[in-house]
Amino acid sequence: MGDDEQESEVAEWKQYIEDPPANLVIAEDNDDDAAQAMDWADRHPRQVAEPDEDDTPAEEAAIHEIPGR
Question: How far apart are the C-alpha atoms of 4 and 28, rounded to whole Å?
Fold first, then answer.
């Protein structure tokens, strides 16, 4: 695809999402409740745990591969 490894990975990822294999369904999380969750966290600082060290990019964390039916 290209000489830049990251650019190639991004292009492959976009192609994978836009045209997934026939046996997979790509579903994305609905992030409508993100503001509500942040407001709750602001009001309850003691109940909010320290975040885990997770290096998963948000784009990957919000997408789930579901085997096709």
Answer: 27
